[in-house]
């Protein structure tokens, strides 16, 4: 399983990737999670990235490509992976292709999560995330049993700085300009599979499994 999850912020890529990576026994490589933990740890890379992230802008390609090149070379990624939030530009997609060629690997599918803009705005501005396990909730449609506390691990829930309405609009604009062109890039490679990312989570998961060639 070498799968890319592609789609706008708030499309549900992380939620589905966490579950499916566990089911498939492969690592979930989420550049956003990697950058947020680097920022929380206060590393130079994390602090530099945070300036871009807080504004909803993309972190420069060189930084992300270096980070992913290293991560994809780790032993656990040799058996497969789900990448979530990468690539986000054509330059990143070309760099990913190059790394895969160098290591004799190939992508199995690129799954595109199709979600309307109104739904993305609703999801992102109401989203709360667990600081400890990254599980996500929604204030209205998927609240935790106890306000502010993660059902799964008891961790503290917080709102991402970049989930404020103005920054969300900026992120959606950046997605349209810089990331949406990847749809054609992967369509031309014959790898693109579109899944409708609205409706019950289980139904979406089944559609993703099918798109990824997992018949179970
Ligand atoms: P995400 O958690 O995927 O929504 O990513 C949060 C933020 O991290 C983005 O708004 C970007 O600032 C940064 N980021 C994550 N992945 C990438 C990437 N592949 N290229 C550039 N910036 C990224």
What's the CATH H-level superfamily name of the domain at 2-27 and 74-116 and 166-211? P-loop containing nucleotide triphosphate hydrolases
CATH topology of the domain at 2-27 and 74-116 and 166-211: Rossmann fold
Name the helicity range: 40-55%
| Extended strand count | 8
Q: Which hetero compounds are present in the coordinates?
A: adenosine monophosphate
Explain what this protein looks like in three dimensions.
This protein is α/β, with parallel strands linked by helices. It has a domain at 2-27 and 74-116 and 166-211: P-loop containing nucleotide triphosphate hydrolases (Rossmann fold, 3-Layer(aba) Sandwich), CATH 3.40.50. Helix content is 48%, strand content 15%. It has nine helices and eight strands. The protein has a five-stranded parallel sheet, with helices on both faces. A three-stranded antiparallel sheet has the order 6-5-7. The protein starts with a strand and ends in a 5-residue tail after the last helix.
Concise overview:
The chain is of the alpha/beta class and 216 residues long. Helices cover 48% and strands 15% of the residues.
